[in-house]
Amino acid sequence: MSDPKLTALIGQGVNTVRLSYPDLHGIARGKEYPVQYFDHLVGDGAAHCEAIMTVDLQHNVVAGFEHGFQDIVARPDASTLVRIPWDPEVAWCIADLERMDGSPYGVDPRGVLKRAVAEYTAENLVPVVGPELEFYLCEPDPSEPRGYRRYVNNHSHVYTVGAVADPRGVLRRMLHACAELGLGAYAANHEFGRSQYEINLRHTDALNAADRAFLFKTTVKEMAAIDGLLATFIGKPWNDDEGSGFHLHLSLANRRGKNLLVDPKGEEGLSELTYHFLAGLLEHGPALMAFFNPTTNAYRRIHEEALVPTLVSWGHDNRLTMARVPRERGPATRVELRVGDGASNPYLATAAALFAGMDGIRRKLEPPPPMAGLIYELPEAETAVPLPRTFDAALEALDADDLLKDAMGEELVGTFLTIKGAELDRARKFVTDWEFAEYTHHL
User: Fold this and answer.
1) If 0-12 CB within 10 Å is exposed, 13-18 middle and 19+ buried, where does residue 36 land?
2) Which of 46, 84, 157, 440 sits at a 20 to 30 Å CA gap from 13?
3) Once rounded to an integer, what is the mean pLDDT over residues 302-315?
4) Going along 100-225, which residue ranges are E strands?
5) Could you read off the pLDDT of 229-260 as tens digits, one per residue?
């Protein structure tokens, strides 16, 4: 083996490499290979049919017909090699996607994030990202209409740990596995919803943060499956419980690691760069929703009572706003983008946010005044731009945002809109249990 990292892993008993890459949904796709094949993968890559990037969640190929479904190449990024704790004979490796001629593949989510980071690098800026994800654990139950019940179904277990909140120790095993994988996991707890959990991940540079979020979601789902459970990151799995969010903490540093959002002499201790970056996020807020909330289900949790933003807004330590600026200063100065749903693809969401923020920086945009308190009762709420409340409105906002479409890439956005448009069309035609119960006996 020419890669020293893999050589060391082989010495620990690894005999298989799992090559994974995210599709547009954020699902881990790929193959497993004997370790002896790794040098070939690095040199020549592995051919995969590009149809895998145009498949919807019901196994329908809905885009890419114009190309005749050519091959694309998955090329391993050897720096991401890591041994899988629950399957110690396997090493995980994330791949980048290319065309057969070696050019970048436009629908590669990791590739678009790399392009976003490169724009910051050109300005001597390093985007630093902390992903924050919640999920539910569900247990199979044929007697339930949906086929699942909650893993734990007791109220008020928020911020509790141990056997009461996690009777089979699943969360603790996940925490340790995520730590061993190098995902920066440092704490875990039961969240507000019944059988809703969170594992905290540390902040790092943007690409590494998205890699970790991608592997984190895949790890949680795989380890849940090993325990006979279903882990889901969708925003609203239960009508009578809380939604799951994806909050993205963002800061900008110089190449020496100094946080550039802080300025002791600036208004509220924030630099001008912070305000320009914030203004860019707000400018493209409606279009960002399509990447941060990429399902019809995501919009079930977007309402004022759910601590989920509904207005293009920002504020100091205000969880009702789209962009929250916590009160910490110094190295901890950051912007928390609170619009996300756990089902979002972390590469696409992070890239879109960075492109939006960069637009604000380059155009020196200024945000409106911060909103404080119960923002929906403020006079400013009357004139604030509303965030999309439905998936079709979010897709329309993305399609209307020329800068974001151009930044993310015509091929990627076009494919995304086609896949999600087909998904939305199926949702429109589907008769729900609610409709049957609401109408049939009376109308």
Assistant:
1) exposed
2) 46
3) 89
4) 126-140, 148-150, 185-190, 196-201, 204-205
5) 999 999 999 999 999 999 999 999 999 999 99
Residue 224 backbone dihedrals phi, psi, to 5 degrees:
-60, -45
CB atoms within 10 A of CB 385: 13
Q: Are 56 and 422 in contact (CB under 8 A)?
A: yes
Q: Which helix (H) or strand (E) holds 316?
A: strand 314-316
**78-136 pLDDT per residue, tens:** 999 999 999 999 999 999 999 999 999 999 999 999 999 999 999 999 999 999 999 99
Location of structure tokens 């704790």: 85
Give the Cα separation of 118 and 395 in Å (integer): 26
- Domain membership of residue 268 as a residue range: 115-434
| 348 and 272 assigned to the same domain | yes
From the list 400, 411, 407, the residue with the least C-alpha distance to 66 is: 411
φ/ψ of residue 400, rounded to 5 = -90, -10
CATH number at residue 388: 3.30.590.10
Task: Calculate the alpha carbon distances from 244 to 132, 137, 201, 332, 374 in Å.
Answer: 10, 12, 16, 24, 22
Buried residues in 136-157 as b, exposed as e (16+ CB within 10 A): bbbbeeeeeeeebebbbeeeeb
List phi, psi (to 5°) of 155: -75, 155
- 441 belongs to a structural domain: no
Q: Are strands 314-316 and 323-325 parallel, antiparallel or unpaired?
A: parallel
86 plus 232 within the same structural domain: no
Residue type, 55: V
Q: 266 and 313: one domain?
A: yes
* 157 vs 208, more confident: 208
The predicted structure's pLDDT at residue 60:
85
Q: How far apart are alpha carbons 9 and 93 in whole angstroms?
A: 12
Whole-number Å distance between alpha carbons of 443 and 441:
6
Distance CA 125, CA 114 (A): 14
Q: Model confidence over 336-367: pLDDT tens digits? A: 999 999 999 999 999 999 999 999 999 999 99
Residue range 289-298, pLDDT digits in tens: 999 999 999 9
